Amino acid sequence: MHDEKLQKAIDQFVLERINACGQMKNQAVADAYALFSEKADELKQSLSLSQKTLFIDCENAFALLDGEIMQCYYRAGFSDAVDFLLEWRDKE
d(Cα 6, Cα 67) in Å, to the nearest integer? Predict the structure, then answer.
């Protein structure tokens, strides 16, 4: 995007939207994370100390991946919405 003001506004909007969604309760997401957390804890209990260290590294990498995926899809969705509205406006 060439317009820096628009890019800054999009960045702010995406950040606000991600934060808002993080505060909303979505039962399916909450259930999925609860199951993941439960199974991760079960697995962690069965590991040796060196394996636990590696597992924690994997958990951290997954948390980073999860955040990047969320941001990527919010940006893509917002960008698609802007493109749609601009194309729709131009057809009028």
Answer: 23
